[in-house]
Design a protein that fits this description.
The protein is globular. It is built from twelve helices and two strands; from the N terminus they run ααααβααβαααααα. The protein has a two-stranded antiparallel ribbon with strand order 1-2. The chain is mainly α. 32% of the residues are buried. Helix 3 crosses helix 8, helix 6 crosses helix 11 and helix 9 runs antiparallel to helix 10.
Length: 326
């Protein structure tokens, strides 16, 4: 077992407890920001300790993007973090893409069972797709392979994050869901704002969108938000692949920001909107086609897909050996 399995969680926990102490001891502003600089620097380094591509990318998303933004908002006295939150919920909220909310105990058992069932199905789908790609990728059209890798990405995120939420619920914390059936989106605004990776929206809204919108208007706020999101995706992609950014990922998000602005402009001038049965396939087709064109090749192209599949095969083999040995 690699040492990062223990060192990274322990370092993150210690860093976030220090951040809570520093925030509780200083007022929002420059003093608090300077007090948080050691944590901000540490979060940039920790993902490099992880040897596995997929895990390193996921940890970079948790720490380098969301964690850094949450701490910067904390330095300003905004965002989901509050130094008055109890230590365990503070660490949980700071280190993971989750947001606390009021506990509703009535549906607790049902929620946990639903999460386990949904996550099990998505893990099974991921295993089937990985097995297919491992044995048949050469006979699969490149765009079809990109779509399958996109499905894997969604299944992993929508399995890992609900499991984290179930863990938090077991510790007495209710966590907001991060995905809300994005495949049912009726518009780009619906997809990005209310259905896909909602913790990112919750972090970008106060840190980028609201300040820019207040000064330059809604379209500028939307474009700035998508630009920052694209740049941060480039950073996470670097941690994942160790390859220099190509700009494709940023182009994908800028395109979607401009498309959302155009969508809003059309909605303001024409009251009639296409029915959901028409709008949803159009939105999904646009997201998938542009992702295959710009986003997914930067993550899975250039031979990276073979490395991911080889890593998955090696992990599966290790688990089989452990199972056979026990």
């Amino acid at each position: 077992m690699h040492h990062s399995v223990a060192t990274v969680p322990l370092a993150v926990t210690a860093a976030m407890l220090y951040a809570r102490f520093a925030a509780s001891s200083t007022r929002p502003g420059l003093c608090r920001f300077f007090a948080l600089i050691p944590v901000l620097a540490l979060l940039l380094v920790l993902p490099f300790l992880i040897p596995l591509y997929g895990v390193r990318g996921l940890v970079a998303f948790f720490l380098v993007w969301l964690g850094e933004f949450k701490l910067l908002l904390l330095a300003l006295g905004h965002g989901p973090l509050d130094p008055h939150i109890r230590p365990l919920p503070f660490v949980f909220t700071a280190a993971l893409p989750v947001k606390l909310r009021q506990i509703s105990k009535d549906a607790d058992v049902i929620k946990t069972k639903t999460v386990l069932l949904s996550s099990s199905i998505k893990f099974a789908v991921t295993a089937v797709i990985v097995h297919h790609l491992h044995h048949s990728k050469e006979r699969t059209h490149p765009y079809a392979a990109f779509v399958l890798f996109g499905v894997i990405t969604y299944c992993i995120l929508d399995s890992v994050l609900p499991c984290l939420a179930a863990t938090g619920r077991a510790l007495g914390m209710e966590l907001e869901p991060q995905f809300n059936k994005p495949y049912l989106s009726a518009s780009l605004e619906d997809f990005w704002g209310r259905r896909w990776n909602l913790m990112v929206s919750a972090v970008l809204r106060p840190s980028v969108y609201n300040p820019v919108r207040a000064r330059l208007g809604v379209p500028a706020g939307v474009l700035a938000t998508f630009l920052v999101s694209g740049l941060m995706h480039e950073v996470v992609a670097y941690y994942l692949t160790f390859r220099a950014p190509t700009g494709q990922v940023t182009a994908f998000f800028v395109l979607h920001g401009a498309s959302m602005c155009a969508e809003r402009w059309c909605a303001c001038r024409w009251s009639a909107r296409p029915p959901r049965v028409v709008a949803t396939p159009l939105v999904v087709a646009f997201v998938v086609s542009t992702a295959c064109w710009l986003f997914l090749p930067a993550i899975f192209g250039g031979g990276m897909d073979d490395l991911y599949l080889a890593e998955a095969a090696a992990l599966a083999s290790s688990f089989r050996d452990v199972g056979a040995g026990s």
